[in-house]
Amino acid sequence: MQRVANPEQVTYETLDDGRIARIWLNRPEAQNAQSRTLLVQLDEAFGRAEADDDVRVVILAARGKNFSAGHDLGSEEALAERAPGAGQHPTFRFNGATRGSVTERTYLQEWHYFFENTTRWRDLRKITIAQVQGNAISAALMLIWACDLIVAADDARFSDVVAVRMGMPGVEYYAHPWEFGARKAKELLLTGDAIDADEAHRLGMVSKVFARAELEDKTLEFARRIAERPTMAALLVKDSVNAASDAMGFAEALRHAFHIHELGHAHWAATNENRYPVGLAPDVPDWRTLGAPKLARRDEP
């Protein structure tokens, strides 16, 4: 096994003589909440795996108790990243200045960091497996849904609380009807309820459910089975299934739902006179309270 030292928010390693790459979300102290830095490093890690001809399968895993608490909306780092002109992608700048209103900044940032990234990872030229334990909340679903296969620990729980907490239809990569089915998607989005690993397996979202203590080893065994398949055959399977989904409207539905999501941001900004930092509502899940009996309310000036 070859390990690559990386003290930052995402780590990368190769196993089985380089046939398997494993990418770790490495912010366990923050419940792997997704800062902009984490997403940039994750994109770089996926790109590294794609460029390596030896890699056949990529595992996306996460350190710590929970897979991910979703977007990082609660840390000082997240607020600094969302500040106008701070650490933004070059396309967010016009004549040397930050573009437009809160609504426009939100649109441009979320298109780049959330939508473009996730759709690109879905089409990665490798077979990808998400390895999920604990809570996978809101934007965590975007990461795992971009993968070809999902395996879960028996303590895994999946939810999207964006609709009930922030007035959006759901996260930016809106695969809910495809992953849950139409009526179950409505139920989960309208209530904010979570489903466990067994129910996710019954719905077909999760391929395998393993005991938490065995998750890492069993996922690696599963990845090895996939890696034994001829590379060309694996990619033809992936492309054929993805193309079938797209022919049924998946890709167009994603784009449409992203714009509806941004309309929700625009409504929020208009009704709150742009008082809140981009993407931050006064009552949102906070990774610092994850697992507490009640989500903390954030008091804004």
From TrEMBL:
<dbReference type="GO" id="GO:0018787">
    <property type="term" value="F:4-chlorobenzoyl-CoA dehalogenase activity"/>
</dbReference>
<keyword id="KW-0378">Hydrolase</keyword>
<dbReference type="InterPro" id="IPR029045">
    <property type="entry name" value="ClpP/crotonase-like_dom_sf"/>
</dbReference>
<dbReference type="InterPro" id="IPR001753">
    <property type="entry name" value="Enoyl-CoA_hydra/iso"/>
</dbReference>
<dbReference type="GO" id="GO:0006635">
    <property type="term" value="P:fatty acid beta-oxidation"/>
</dbReference>
<dbReference type="Pfam" id="PF00378">
    <property type="entry name" value="ECH_1"/>
</dbReference>
<keyword id="KW-0443">Lipid metabolism</keyword>
<protein>
    <submittedName>
        <fullName>Enoyl-CoA hydratase/carnithine racemase</fullName>
        <ecNumber>3.8.1.7</ecNumber>
    </submittedName>
</protein>
